Amino acid sequence: MLRFAVLAVAVLATGSASAETLTIGINATLSGAGAVFGEGMALAATNFADEVNAKGGLKIGGKSYTIELKKYDDRYRAQDAVTAMERLILEDKVKYVVGPMGSASTLATQARTNGDQILTLTMAFTPKALSPQLPFSFRPAITTAEFTGPQLAWLGKTLALKRVRALAPNDETGQSVAASQKEAYAAIGVNLEVDFFERERVDFIPILTRALAQTDALEIGGNSPTTAGLLVKQARELGYKGPIFVTGGDVTAELVKVAGKQAAEGVYVHLPIDISKPETAGYIKAFEAKFKQPANGHNLFIYSGLQMLTAAMQKAGTVDDTAKVAKELQGLANFPTVLGTAGWTGDKRYGIDHQIDVPFYVGQIKDGVVAKVATCSVTACN
Amino acid sequence: MSMETILAQTVVNGLMVGMIYMLMAIGFTMVFGIMRIVNFAHGEFYMVGAFMFAIFYGSYEVPFALSLLLAIVTTALVGLVMERLVFSRFRGNELNGMIASVGVALIMQNAALLIWGPSPRSVPAVVSGVISFGGIVFPWSRVVVIIGALIAVGLLYVLIAHTQLGRAMRAVAQDAEIALAQGIRVEVIFPLAFVLGVALAALAGALMAPVLSVSPFVGLAPTLKAFVIVVIGGLGSVPGAVAGGLLIGLIESFAGTFMSAALAEILQFIVVIAVVLLRPQGLLGRKEREA
To answer: What ipTM was estimated for this complex?
Structure first.
């Protein structure tokens, strides 16, 4: 009996000594026009944490870690992202952050996070989000810089285009997306004219009246899902029947919801995920059953990023030494994620391999759902 | 598309959007004219009206006209509660009333966020397709909005100009104390005017819900537009709100089409500053009498 009691105490003591908490911060847009993306990121982290915790935690260096999340809303504003990051670092003492989401938010916080060796999984599309001077910034999302060139080359070859008009929000995200789009369109011999507007705008009829009179196609990549949906809806309301491209983040589900099936028919979209892959389909099915809402691209990218990040922690055998974790993370190759096999690329473009390397696709909306029409890598679409 | 067609389309676009601005501004200016409150929560009643319509028409598939009526009635009830709880205490106190209205706006916006979530909600189109005359396109969805707005403004005109209630409201707007001395029940007129203003915002929200999308944040832009319009038209002036609404709609349409969206915003505020400097009472407003 005494021996059993001593054993029980020993087990409890061991258990309590190894039961640790790994706090991961979330710094994303959880309200306003970009909330759909931010909610996707936050729910991916919640889902990941739930799954890990349900299995008894994350085993790292002989300890078992329960994941706890600290979530803050940057409202798509750089100053709010800075406040959120300060709270995460100073109050919550996090060393790992999911986000920031927007380019402006990332640029405003990256000096602080890298200076303090805080490892971030940013979703910012700006090329300035990654560089050799930012060794703790990783991007688990395919951005316009990666997919625009191959995708537009394919579209330009498939449809005869001479001039294209783009509408983009007048902020850091919109400007950087438009710059890479201009470059990519120029590379296929197409002149791209861009009209910028305030991000809060909801009535685009005046801008579209002019833009649609002078174009072969409309480009609306880089807009929030709601805005993209409104643009499609209002362009069709003006009787526009030409091609529409969304060479930007995955906005399809919300675009169809806002624009309606009829208006969205035929729209070409960037498709970051292939739902015919069993691992992707399985994740989406389980996620949607649990959260009763669609899993967008941001959701799957963050989930994959967390899969890779926690694997790197396990390989490094520590959660405290983020430099060691970053080194292991960068070294991951052919790693199985919910998006398929992933690794890191980007040395040629950014000077550092911190850009996720997974296949992506060109899709076309047909009867409210996206059909894959081409499979792409960073070099070409077929 | 020829330049003539673009010009005509721009006028049509401006008038279409101006109608909605007009509807918003009339409610905003009525509340100011009668209660002396600059109601920055006005756009939140637009948002509630839009959500109510989305629920009745989109979720429960209630017929369009009935959904419109239900959205207006339920939002008006919310407005009545707000008037009784908050706004009635700030009548005539312009500064404190304005600050309280900002608080109400934030409360309503965040309450909507908690209840309905941040995701935009799409409302099925009431009608689809376009009609075109000589290359000028009229989307049916916006024609419905124009018809709805015109009917509402017509009914409001009849109410204000030709009914006893309307005369009482005008009397209270001119001088509440004299109106009281004349036997007008100002305690009834105040909440009625507020609810009427809320109902107009709810109607605008419900009409625009199928055209745009619905989210807790849709009220901010209409509030700012309504404020700009009533400053141009004259605070408290219903004809000023009509003229200002159409003017801003046209400015926005022309500047947005022939310049850039950013310049369109700048131009609106240049007009506001010019009006405030040259005619502080607004285009159709009356000068405040010296004490």
So the answer is: 0.74
